Amino acid sequence: MAYQNLTNPSYSADAAPDTGPIKVFSDMVHSYLNLVQRNDFPPAFLEQILKTPDNINFNTDQIKEVLMYEVGYLVALAIGVVFIVLMSLVGFCFACCRCCGNCGGKMYQKQTKRINCKRRFQYFFLLVVTLIILAGDICAFYSNSKIDTAVNNSFTSFNNTMDNLKTYVNTVPQDVDIIINSSSAPIDLANSRITDIGPVLGGMIKKDIEAVANPTLDSVQTLVNNLNATQQSLNAMNGSFNALVEQQNQLVTNLTALRQQINNTLSSCGSPCSSGPSIEDLAIDANFQNVPDISQSQKAIDDVLNSRIADTIQKARQTLNDIPQTVTNQTKTSVKDVQDQLLNIQRKIQDVRGSIPIVDTLATVNSYFDMAMNYSHQYQADIVKYNYYRWIVGICLSCIILLVVVCNLLGLLLGPCGHRAHVDPTDRNCASNCGGDFFMAGAGFSFIFAWLLMLVAAVLFAVGGNVYTSFCKPWSNQQLYKFVDANVNLSKQLNINVSNLSISSLYSDCEKNSPLWSTLNLGSMINLDEYLNISAYTGDVNSTLENTKIDVSDITFMSNSQRDQVTSVTTSGVDALNFTDINQQMTKNITKTNLISFADQLDTLADSLSPGSAMDELRNESIALRELQNSIDANLVPAIKNLNTSISNLQAKTKDLPGSLNVTLANIDSAQKYVETNVSGIVKDETRAYLNTILGYFESYINWAKAMLTTNLARCKPVAGALDSAEVIVCQYLVDSFNAFWFSLGWCTIFFIPSIIVSVKLAKHYRRMKNGDVYETPNDHLEMATTSQQFLIPRPTAKS
């Protein structure tokens, strides 16, 4: 039987996980967060909160437990707070000192032998630090954009995931209906077989009976054919004998008359004819008058052939051919009862659908999906709007870092452009001085905004880091599923009375694309063997057909009278007819002397006589003998040959006739006994085989339905795909991008410290100094101050 295929829905593509450089950067963030949070998940306090959500009362021990769990984050936040405080304090002090002309605020640079080497080292060191900050700022820009893209695309991905789940959930009842409705296939096929019970069951019975009856009927037909052939041979032999006797009698008459004439002629001729031939040889030598009596055999065969045995054979064959119609006529009532029982079977199978609670449960689950999608549409506009504000703030923060980077890069670009190694610091050109000013501007901006950037990074770190370590990380390694399993009764949530149902096992099975039956362990709740047990109804079909009376035993191969007549043929002696005398006679000459030779002698005698009446008579009689011989050759000889052929054919046919007739009679007796004793058994056996065929349709369907329900129905790969998509959307698209942003801010802010130090030091090499040194040699120089009076040439002064 061909059953309808289950639905094969098409699903939208699942959210693809991040790959490439962003994946490498995310792994860096994950490594840092794993270093910060090294405690195992889940914390004990979280389990207690979930178990008693209505009675949350944190005592000292619980607070201590929370702090111990968050110790890594607290340490990191403490470092951030110290950074904010110290950076602000140092920046304030630095600004005050420089305003007072201290801390490098004096516009004077001491010239040393290694000043060029220091400048180059500081230049390349600041260049590396600036590039590192620039790389972090690029990551900040990209992460900020990635968050925006993730927020905007997450709604589409979320809707696609929900659509996939709804499609999956909707296919379950459809597939269940397909499986249940496929019961019409065996019902229709069984009904068709029941409707055609005559041709089908009758044909089966007919085939079995014909296996014995047809060879027997064929042997009876062969018997009739043999008797017909034997009868024809007897008639042919009898006709040949009568024709031969008639020819012989005619020959005797003619030969006797001719002999008397010759005798009279010879007697009247007297002494001249005394030397003539003896007329005693003109007589018949072979006598065909003695033929065996075949009348008894002929009568016996005629009696058989006239007993309407051909009609008996035809009637038997017609009875066999009428078996299908006989079965149809005798099972009309049973067929109607069986058709009613088939309807009961179909109703029983249809009731199975209502016994599968998962169908109604999935309808409830579908409502949750609709609710989630409604919430998504409801808050989408607000989320997009506030995300835009967040994006602007992220751009501003990234631009602050970019401002410092630009100042450093301008300083690195302009500083060397106007710098000359042997030019007095007080005479440095404008480009070099601008480069130094940009270095100081970058350091100033770093002091001004470092606390803000670190504050933002710390707050985002506390939120995003905890979301990753307490939610995304256990979600990725499936610890979250085990935690939910330990604290949430999934069976109760789904309203399914199934034990040992867990999200972990559900996800694991769905990853393997297992069917819903094994995934939800529905076998412990639904006994399919009980629901699909239709043996009571099939038993009614069985008993109805087995109790149906089917009688096809009215088959007669040969009546008793016909059998007696055939037996009389075997005892008629048809095979023992004695043709010895006839055969001996056929070996003799027809006449004692050859008539042609006798005629020649008469001609010779006539030639010796003088012309006269005697000579003419002898010549005439010689001609008559020759004509008579020609008549013998033309008529009697062929008649003898025909008789010989007829006897040979008859003997060939009658030689084994009694034996073959006895064998045929034995076969008829055996076949008749078989029909009389075994036909009822054949009817029962074939009825049982017919029933097994019909019931086999239902057994095949039940096995197929069980296989479909337990191994093919609702393979839940889309569920695992939906969970994976949710993890990708929430954790990789949103949380990882969020964490990458604060990590980039923190990265850049930390490198502000070496950037400030090196920028301030490098600025002295490029800014125009107000005080300079006097060089004694090209390589050595001494510090000089414009305010010093030590080496001034004395001038005369006028005294008043």
Which short descriptors sum up this protein?
single chain; 800 residues; mainly alpha; 2 domains; two-stranded antiparallel sheet; 26 helices; 2 strands; 0% strand; elongated; disordered C terminus
- How much helix is in the residues? over 70%
Would you report the number of β strands? 2
Q: Which series of helices and strands comes N to C?
A: HHHHHHHHHHHHHHHHHHHHHHHHHHEE
Q: Could you tell me the radius of gyration in angstroms? A: 65 Å
User: Number of domains in the coordinates?
Assistant: 2
Write the layout of secondary structure elements.
Blueprint: H1 21-36, H2 44-51, H3 60-69, H4 71-99, H5 115-181, H6 184-195, H7 197-269, H8 295-305, H9 309-321, H10 323-330, H11 332-350, H12 358-418, H13 430-476, H14 479-487, H15 490-493, H16 503-511, H17 516-519, H18 528-531, H19 535-546, H20 560-570, H21 580-587, H22 595-608, H23 613-654, H24 657-712, H25 717-750, H26 752-766, E1 774-775, E2 781-782
Antiparallel strand pairs: 1-2
